[in-house]
């Protein structure tokens, strides 16, 4: 999962792109980058780390121009090297620089085609570089006599035809403007905003609406599945929906975990969806455990707070903040190696003992992935004095790997894979374990909105784009703990990229 942003305006954009990236920082803490355009020049700066670590004021000052894109990276298996920080650049045609959120599931086939048939060299293992070169190849084949918007839209249509998977993309086209597009099922999110100025309308695209709010852009709409938008160098907005576009199939895990609660995604309030998740889960608990002895509901911060609040209300018990979170520890389920994950949980959360002492506690989390974090948290609750520790997950059991941009573990490392709810509960040490039902989760997300499909593969194993034979087996090898540790060591030993902005 990554965060992308693009701005086409009438004043310098680098500072605003940086601000948007800090707002979207929850979508990726591994690497950050900004590219800007001024006339026929492109300026680029990127590196590993948080946006605040990658960019100094002097770096931002060198990123001149009124059009630009920004990217924060959360790496997927096999694509976590320093030279894979985005945006990525290719010099022909025009000069293209791309930011990508998502994952292609046929990148191996496309990589072979690019090398054998189209004579394009790829220097990284990133599927984003594959996507960039596919776009570049298709754009080079266009009739140069067509308007640039039509050339770009035709090229993106060809991308849709060739690429399978999830992608929300921003592209700077040197000397031309800003292009953005979304995969044909709309798996990965992308929104459009506008800001009126005396010089004309400025446009912004971003992974989440919260980035628009922070920069004083008005929300216009979600970019539709298979839709492309292009803002030319004169500030004119062009749009096109591909004939390859399908039904909106929104990523469910965005609403469960990744998105900020103050965002709107495909006309769904993330906050209200999570409130309803808590209500549905509480009703489930009352059905399964009508004579419960729960004294207090405690969320595992941060994402589960909203659901836990509505659960406590419906269960008619107290809601308490029982864990204090160290915000400087990264997400534990993607860390390489069990030992590192175990250490990180204890450093990440610290219990407030008085909220646990002599109480029957219901802990609420947004999801349970490996189960190692849940097991340690339950142990911490008991050590703090809890009499009984119940556990509730606002999402269904995660039994299958995600292949659309969320770097979940290999299936064999998922605690719910091949196990019953009772077996998972015993493994993590809970007195009782409650999971959300998938149908309830869908109902919670939709509310009263018009029904549309959701991408729920990590819960039900249904991959909406289809997968080639052997894909999951190959992915399993990439996502094993040993493979993660090897890549982590390689990244630590690799030289850091030049911190100076590059001009192309």
Jot down its keywords.
six-stranded antiparallel beta sheet, 2 domains, 504 residues, alpha+beta, 25 strands, Glutamine Phosphoribosylpyrophosphate, subunit 1, domain 1, Rossmann fold, eight-stranded antiparallel beta sheet, disordered C terminus, 25% strand
Question: Can you describe this structure in just a few lines?
Answer:
It contains 17 helices and 25 strands. The protein is an alpha+beta fold and 504 residues long.
Describe the structure.
There is one protein chain. The chain is α+β, with helices and mostly antiparallel strands. The protein has two domains: 3-246, Glutamine Phosphoribosylpyrophosphate, subunit 1, domain 1 (4-Layer Sandwich); 269-449, Rossmann fold (3-Layer(aba) Sandwich), CATH 3.40.50. Helix content is 33%, strand content 25%. It contains 17 helices and 25 strands. The strands form six sheets. It has an eight-stranded antiparallel beta sheet with strand order 11-9-10-1-4-2-3-25. A six-stranded antiparallel beta sheet has the order 5-6-7-8-12-13, with helices on one face. A five-stranded parallel beta sheet has the order 18-17-21-22-23, with helices on both faces. Helix 11 packs across helix 12 (372-383). It is globular, with a radius of gyration of 23 Å. It starts with a strand and ends with a strand. The model is unreliable at 332-338 and 499-504 (pLDDT under 50).
């Amino acid at each position: 999962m990554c965060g992308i942003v693009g701005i086409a305006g009438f004043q310098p954009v680098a500072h605003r792109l940086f601000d948007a990236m800090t707002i979207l920082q929850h979508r990726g803490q591994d690497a950050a980058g900004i590219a800007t355009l001024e006339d026929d020049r492109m300026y680029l700066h990127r590196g590993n780390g948080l946006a605040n670590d990658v960019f100094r004021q002097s770096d931002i000052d060198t990123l001149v121009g009124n059009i630009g894109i920004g990217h924060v990276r959360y790496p997927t298996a096999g694509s976590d090297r320093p030279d894979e920080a985005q945006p990525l650049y290719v010099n022909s045609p025009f000069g293209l620089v791309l930011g990508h959120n998502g994952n292609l599931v046929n990148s191996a086939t496309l990589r072979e085609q690019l090398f054998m048939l189209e004579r394009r060299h790829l220097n990284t293992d990133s599927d984003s570089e594959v996507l960039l070169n596919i776009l570049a190849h298709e754009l080079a084949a266009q009739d140069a006599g067509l308007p640039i918007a039509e050339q770009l839209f035709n090229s993106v249509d060809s991308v849709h035809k060739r690429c399978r998977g999830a992608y929300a993309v921003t592209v700077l086209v040197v000397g031309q403007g800003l292009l953005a597009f979304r995969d044909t099922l709309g798996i990965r999110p992308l929104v459009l905003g506008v800001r009126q100025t005396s010089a004309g309308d400025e446009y912004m695209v971003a992974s989440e609406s919260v980035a628009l709010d922070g920069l004083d852009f008005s929300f216009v709409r979600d970019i539709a599945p298979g839709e492309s938008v292009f803002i030319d160098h004169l500030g004119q907005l062009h749009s096109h929906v591909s004939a390859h576009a399908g039904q909106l199939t929104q990523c469910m895990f965005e609403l469960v975990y990744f998105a900020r609660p103050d965002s709107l995604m495909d006309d769904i309030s993330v906050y209200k969806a999570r409130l309803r998740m808590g209500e549905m889960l509480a009703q489930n608990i009352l059905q399964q455990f009508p004579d419960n002895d729960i004294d207090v509901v405690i969320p595992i911060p941060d994402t589960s707070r909203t659901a836990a609040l509505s659960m406590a209300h419906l269960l008619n018990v107290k809601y308490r903040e029982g864990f204090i979170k160290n915000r400087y520890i990264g997400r534990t389920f993607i860390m390489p190696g069990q030992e590192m994950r175990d250490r990180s949980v204890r450093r990440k959360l610290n219990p407030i003992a008085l909220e646990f002492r002599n109480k029957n506690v219901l802990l609420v989390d947004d999801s349970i992935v490996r189960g190692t974090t849940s097991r340690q948290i339950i142990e911490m609750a008991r050590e703090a004095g809890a009499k009984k520790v119940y556990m509730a997950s606002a999402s269904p059991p995660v039994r299958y790997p995600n292949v659309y941009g969320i770097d979940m573990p290999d299936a064999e490392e998922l605690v719910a894979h091949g196990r019953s709810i009772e077996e998972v509960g015993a493994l993590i040490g809970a007195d009782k374990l409650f999971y959300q039902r998938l149908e309830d989760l869908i109902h919670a997300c939709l509310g009263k909105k018009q029904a549309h499909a959701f991408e729920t593969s990590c819960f039900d194993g249904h991959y909406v784009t289809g997968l080639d034979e052997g894909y999951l087996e190959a992915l399993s090898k990439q996502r094993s703990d040993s493979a993660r540790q090897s890549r982590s060591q390689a990244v630590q030993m690799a030289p850091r990229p030049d911190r100076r902005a590059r001009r192309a």
